[in-house]
Every structure is written in C-alpha cells, then in structure tokens.
Amino acid sequence: MKSRLIALSFVLAGLLSTSCFQEDYSECYNIYKLVMSYKGDGTSEIFPEKINRVEMYVFDESAVCVSSTVLPDKDVAAGVTVLPPLPAGDYRIVCVGNTYDTGVENLSSKDYTKILFAAEDYLNGETVNGNDSLYYASVDYQIKGFSPMIYEETRTAQFASSHYDILVEVVNAPSYVGKHPKIELLGVSPQTDFENLAKGQATDYIMETVHDGVKTTTARNNIMRHTNHEDVYLKVTGEDGTEVALINFAEHLEKFKLYIDPSKQECLIPFRIEFGTPELPYPSDEICTDITITIPSWMIELVKPEF
Description:
With 307 residues, the chain is mainly β. It contains six helices and 21 strands. The N and C termini lie far apart (71 Å).
C-alpha cells in the first residue's frame, strides 16, 4: 500500500507540473499573497474602515507594468489578495486606494516619479472640486518560479495616506456673501507619483458648498499631501464678487499647530470663517469687517494639547 501511495504522488506531481513549463501559468500551484494593511496614526488595523477600493499595479525589474487590475471587492474587504501568475523575477507592487474618481497617467514611462495619479477632472482639463481620499502602498516581491509542489508566500503592503482632508465653515454670512460663497483652494499640488510624492503645476480647486438652512455654509474635500504650504491659499468670495478672506495655509497651520499636524496620516485641516458674533450677527446690508478666522470649537475640544 505504501508503494502505491508513493507512485500516486509521483503521478500527481507530474500532472501538476505539466502546465508550469508552459507559457500559461494559470494552473500552477505557487501562491503569492499580498496582505493590505493601514494603521493610520495608531497601532490598530483600520484598513477596512478607510479603504474600500484598490487598484494594483505590478512592475518588473525594468519598471515595466506587466499587470494592472482593480481588486475584487471581496479581496479588499478581507485585506488580502493573490498576485497574478508571474514568471520568476523581482517585482514591485504598487497599490492605490479609493480611486473612484482618480485616473493614472504615464504608466508606460518606466519611471515611478513620472507615473502619476490625479482627479479625472484634472486629467480631462476640467474644474476640480477635490480628490478622492487616496492611499498608497508599495512593496518589493520576489517571485521564485513555479514547481509542482504547493508553495505559499506572503508580503504586506503597508498603506500610507496620499491626501489631506479640508473642511471650511462660513458662519453668519451677510447677504452679499450669500448662502453659497465661492470657496477656492489656490496653488494646490494636483498629482501624486508612484513614490507617493505630491507634485504637478499649482492648480486651483473650487469646493462644493452646502448650506444648513440656518447660518452655516460648509465645504469639504480632499487634496493631495503637498509640502509647499506657504504657496497654498484658501480664498472665499461672496456671491457679489467681494473677496471675503484669503488665508495662507502655512500661516494657518502655524497659528493652530497645537490642533493641526500635517505630518499625521489622518490630517484634517479646518477653517472657520465667522461674521460678527453668534449672539449678534452682522447687519446684512453692510460690508462686514468683523470677521474671525479660527477652527471649529469641537476640534479644540477633541484635541487636548495639555495631554
């Protein structure tokens, strides 16, 4: 009986190995897994909470893209996927998360600093409202070839944030400002490369606004994680064309550095522009010079610098 089992094992090995010597590697039994992880600014796994869609790109040792795909929802939900069949060699896997309205260009450039992702509106030459809540991961992976034996290996793709979250509140706006002032982000970096560095010609975004029907207009979006804060501005213009506020990002970040840390993975940069006071709104028929620029009080309560 033992000799029969041994013989059967050799036959099975031969059957399994047959397709591994052909160009079609789909029936080979080597399994190369990719675990997707994101811990933000803490130590707990929050990948499922933050990332719901992943595009995966596989590059060979010459930086040629040999595979690109949107991962199945079940793989993203599980935080693990299997690489496509690949010949033996060294590869780089790049993943971009939450690419709902994001496109990729220069994929064939063979240069990771020139392969860029950006809002599809930007790539189409249209007005940009903001970016997806984007995340990026890159990991080297060595494929050791194929064998008739089942072989499994795993690498972890550790994601990092590729965006800042921007929140703007305009409160007690007089009539010349209106319920829907024009809120612009001036000089932002519109692209991020496959090294997760924001870049590109400085571009202006126009944020979409929502009024609560009482006294507050809110705008919220994401932008790429630029490093040139001193060149980026928030501009608010009233419905009649009057410039209400022009706020430099670097100055705003410095003023509220106890509450805003752009080095954090999950970074919210908020602005609160308030006319008059909540108790006594400014008359709506005059130009208001009593404007306070701060951050929402709930954020001050949430962040306790003394601790």
